[in-house]
Amino acid sequence: MRELFLCSNVLFISNTKYEDRFNIKYSVPLEILWVSDSLEKTGRANSRARRSLVLGWPNCSIVISFYSLGDKEEWLFCLRRFIKLAKNKAQHENTSLDTIIEDSEDCTFV
User: Fold this and answer.
1) 34-36 and 24-29 strand pairing
2) Which of 57, 55, 54, 62 shows the shortest CA–CA distance to 38?
3) How far is CA 43 from each of CA 47, 50, 68, 75, 96, rounded to the nearest angstrom?
4) SUPFAM superfamilies in the record, alphabetically (predicted)?
């Protein structure tokens, strides 16, 4: 059993709870995370597959199964929303423009 902790810019995935502590196994920035609910399309459309999501990031992917379809849908909605917000924020932070103004005698970078 794993526990998920969704923050505004990162998803923490822990191992099972041990002595009232969570051991964080993965800390995934949301701007590199992708989520899919396509297990049903693989031909394994059993009850567990309908309650599962695939989470992936570079070099790793995991399947998370939820207790109910409603829980899965709620997590899917929240993950997609927060991933979109994180990617938009990262894109705006990484966008810079170098402007060159040319004079007749020299070039100046602004």
Assistant:
1) unpaired
2) 54
3) 12, 11, 20, 23, 45
4) PH domain-like (SSF50729)
Largest CA distance in the chain: 73
Distance CA(21)–CA(7), nearest Å, equals 18
Task: Return the minimum-mean-pLDDT range out of 21-30, 69-78, 82-91, 97-106.
Answer: 97-106
pLDDT in tens, 24-50: 889 999 999 999 986 655 555 577 888
Within 8 A by CB and 6+ apart from 88, the residues are: none
Portion of the chain with pLDDT greater than 70, in percent: 75
Q: How far apart are CA 7 and CA 30, in angstroms?
A: 9
Which DSSP state fits 2? Answer: -
pLDDT tens, residue by residue, 44-61 = 557 788 899 999 999 999
Parse the chain into domains and list their residue ranges. 3-109
